[in-house]
Design a protein that fits this description.
6 helices, 39% helix
Length: 185
Amino acid sequence: MGQYLAIGIYTKIRASKNEAASRYNSIDECKEAIIKEFTLNDEVYDFKEDENSIEFSIKPQVMERDLAKLMQQFYALRYSTIEKYDSREALKAVMACKDKNDILQLLNEKTFQCFQKGYPYYISVKATKGWTRSMEVSVSSIILSIDGKIIMECYNDLFHFFTRLIRERLSNIPLSNALNVYIDG
C-alpha cells in the first residue's frame, strides 16, 4: 500500500457538528465555508443535516444522468493511449448500471483501475474560530484516474494530460503549443 495521485469526483463531504460549533459562529456559516471550498451547488449536491453532522452528497439523478457522459469526455482527455487502461470497460460497465445503487456496487467491487471507490480522506476548510482557523471535513470520492507508487512508469501519460489541458486553456496564444509538463533534474 502507498499513496497515489488521483483525480476523482467528490461523492460525499461530511463535517462534524461538534467541530463546526467550535470553528464557526453558526452551522450555516460552516455550510457556506464548505460550499465555497468545494464549489458545491444545489443542482449537483443534496444537503442533509442530523444531530451529529452536516453532509453534502451527489444527487442520485445527477449521478445516473451525468456520470457516463463525464467519464467518456474525461477519459478522452486523460488517456491519450486509451488501450493501456481499462477506461473503455469501466465506461461500458457504468452505462449498464440502472441506478445509483448499481453504480455504488460497481465502485465497491474495485474491478477497474480507472473507476473505483477512493479511500476516505480529510481536507481542511477555512474556519472563523479556533486557534488553527481551519476544520477537517471527511471526503469520499469516485476515482477516475490513479497514478503513483505501483505504476510510476505511467506518470508520462499524466504529464501529457496536464500539457493538453494547459495548452487548451491558453489556446489563444500560439506559443502555448510549446508548453510541456515534465520532471527536471
